């Protein structure tokens, strides 16, 4: 399918990234050229809240990406999940918590550890953008990669806690003028890290946008646009002294936009997942219905056609007439069962479904049907269908071949078991001339029981009725 294009002629991911870049560029120009407008405000409480929100969003989206990795074992998903986890640690453990603990204090926590950890997260994000979309990863390699990252992040965090106070100031407060004017007053290493981070995010944005247009991946599409905001946030951190915990900057707001875009992408990913799941369920129901019609109704109609042809050769053959009548009855039951399956709610308990089917069979065959159904019994999908069909076949055999006047259906929950007992004429299981022995009905019931991992047994004695049991051993 050809990817949809925007009105401007670009593909969706590229169009979204380009629009985001245009807006962020206008904001950056305003910051650099409008000195009469303040772009930084003293708001320590709000800054701590923003860092916490960033961390929570990163953890949420990272968990979603981890679910993608567990399903497909793709290298890109693992790298992206690790990148989000790394920046979440930098935002929450190394930034938000220390800032909250030092509110009102004269000194701020050292920014060197979160700065280094964020750079590691940015590098991982760029690596995810460059990783082949379909490359898989062995579990052992994935574990080693996660372990290695934990060691690196732990070492950087420990070093920051141990030696952060001994390192030079990231921003010299004596060199800072008005918060409204851009000023390159940070330590050269800090400025270099911001430049590298801006370049990495920009490169990742381009790579993710191209991939999203190829794969139509909603999450990657919004990650690409978010990387654009993250890149411009690093540019803003160059223009203003970004490492003061007392101030909230435009760079902080752009970085918050990056995480907001991640959240939008996660929401779109979840929506797409549920839509795909609903479509899969519909297709599976169609396949199941087609399979049931082929195995049931079509087989019976083919059998009727063959017997009718035989009847033209041997007119008046009572055995052939009986076979045609029985097959026609089974075909009607199959058609009714298909209609019931189409109208049945998926969340309806199986005992309720079985009770309705038994009542319909009792009215159709004019026989007394007694039920004892445990409400705790659970049977969904193929298991439910198999038990319904076995019950129908057992009742039909009891009425037509055994002349039963009373049939009892028992459903047990622990362990799951189905029993159908009748007071009909019974038959000799070892007799090949019995209308039951080796017939299509018994064969069909055994095959259906075997198909769901159950064992079907038939006990019958001439003159004492028949008992059909389905149980799991």
Task: Describe the 3D structure.
It is a single chain. The protein has 473 residues and is an alpha+beta fold. It is 65% helix and 8% strand. It has twelve helices and seven strands. It has helices at residues 12-33, 44-72, 75-101, 112-130, 139-163, 188-215, 218-239, 250-313, 318-343, 350-365, 382-400, 440-451; strands at 40-42, 247-249, 368-373, 406-412, 417-422, 455-460, 466-471. The strands form two sheets. A five-stranded mixed sheet has the order 3-4-5-7-6, covered by helices on one side. A two-stranded antiparallel sheet has the order 1-2. Mean pLDDT is 80; it is low at 1-10.
Total beta strands: 7
Share in β-strands: 5-15%
Largest beta sheet, briefly? 5 strands, mixed
Low-confidence stretches: 1-10
How many H/I helical runs?
A: 12
Q: Radius of gyration, rounded? A: 35 Å
Mean pLDDT: 80
Given the C-alpha coordinates, what overall shape results? elongated
Q: How would you classify the helix and strand content by structural class? A: alpha+beta
| C-alpha end-to-end distance | 49 Å
**Sheet with the most strands: spatial strand order:** 3-4-5-7-6
Helix content: 55-70%
- Write the element-wise H/E pattern from the N-terminal end onward: HEHHHHHHEHHHEHEEHEE
Which helices and strands occur, and which strands form pairs?
Layout: H1 12-33, E1 40-42, H2 44-72, H3 75-101, H4 112-130, H5 139-163, H6 188-215, H7 218-239, E2 247-249, H8 250-313, H9 318-343, H10 350-365, E3 368-373, H11 382-400, E4 406-412, E5 417-422, H12 440-451, E6 455-460, E7 466-471
Parallel strand pairs: 3-4
Antiparallel strand pairs: 1-2, 4-5, 5-7, 6-7
């Amino acid at each position: 399918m050809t990817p949809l294009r925007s009105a401007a002629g670009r593909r969706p991911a590229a169009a979204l990234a380009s629009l985001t870049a245009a807006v962020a560029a206008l904001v950056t120009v305003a910051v650099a050229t409008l000195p009469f407008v303040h772009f930084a405000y003293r708001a320590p409480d709000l800054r701590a809240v923003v860092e916490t929100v960033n961390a929570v969003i990163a953890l949420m989206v990272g968990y979603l990406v981890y679910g993608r990795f567990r399903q497909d074992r793709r290298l890109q998903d693992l790298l992206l999940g690790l990148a989000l986890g790394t920046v979440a640690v930098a935002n929450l453990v190394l930034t938000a918590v220390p800032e909250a603990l030092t509110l009102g204090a004269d000194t701020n926590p050292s920014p060197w550890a979160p700065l280094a950890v964020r750079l590691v997260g940015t590098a991982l994000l760029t690596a995810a953008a460059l990783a082949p979309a379909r490359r898989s990863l062995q579990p052992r390699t994935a574990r080693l990669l996660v372990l290695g990252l934990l060691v690196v992040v732990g070492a950087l965090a420990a070093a920051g806690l141990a030696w952060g106070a001994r390192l030079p100031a990231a921003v010299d407060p004596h060199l800072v003028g008005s918060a409204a004017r851009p000023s390159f007053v940070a330590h050269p290493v800090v400025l270099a890290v911001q430049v590298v981070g801006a370049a990495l995010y920009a490169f990742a944005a381009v790579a993710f946008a191209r991939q999203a247009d190829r794969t139509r991946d909603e999450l990657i599409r919004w990650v690409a646009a978010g990387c654009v905001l993250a890149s411009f946030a690093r540019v803003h951190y160059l223009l203003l002294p970004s490492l003061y915990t007392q101030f909230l900057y435009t760079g902080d707001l752009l970085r918050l936009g990056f995480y907001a875009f991640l959240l939008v992408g996660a929401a779109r990913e979840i929506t797409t997942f549920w839509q795909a799941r609903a479509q899969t369920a519909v297709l599976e129901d169609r396949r199941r219905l087609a399979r049931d019609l082929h195995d049931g109704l079509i087989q019976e109609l083919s059998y009727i056609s063959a017997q009718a042809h035989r009847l033209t050769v041997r007119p008046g053959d009572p055995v052939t007439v009986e076979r045609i009548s029985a097959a026609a009855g089974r075909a009607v039951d199959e058609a009714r069962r298909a209609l019931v399956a189409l109208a049945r709610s998926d969340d309806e308990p199986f005992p309720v479904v079985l009770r309705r089917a038994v009542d319909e069979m009792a009215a159709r065959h004019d026989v007394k049907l007694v039920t004892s159904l445990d409400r705790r019994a659970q049977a969904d999908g193929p298991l439910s269908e198999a038990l319904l069909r076995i019950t129908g076949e057992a009742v039909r055999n009891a009425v037509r071949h055994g002349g039963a006047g009373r049939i009892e259906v028992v459903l047990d929950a622990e362990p799951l078991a189905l029993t159908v007992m009748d007071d009909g004429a019974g038959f000799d299981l070892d007799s090949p001339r019995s209308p039951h022995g080796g017939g299509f009905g018994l064969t069909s019931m055994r095959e259906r029981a075997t198909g769901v991992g159950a064992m079907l047994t038939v006990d019958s004695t001439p003159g004492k009725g028949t008992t059909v049991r389905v149980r799991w051993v």
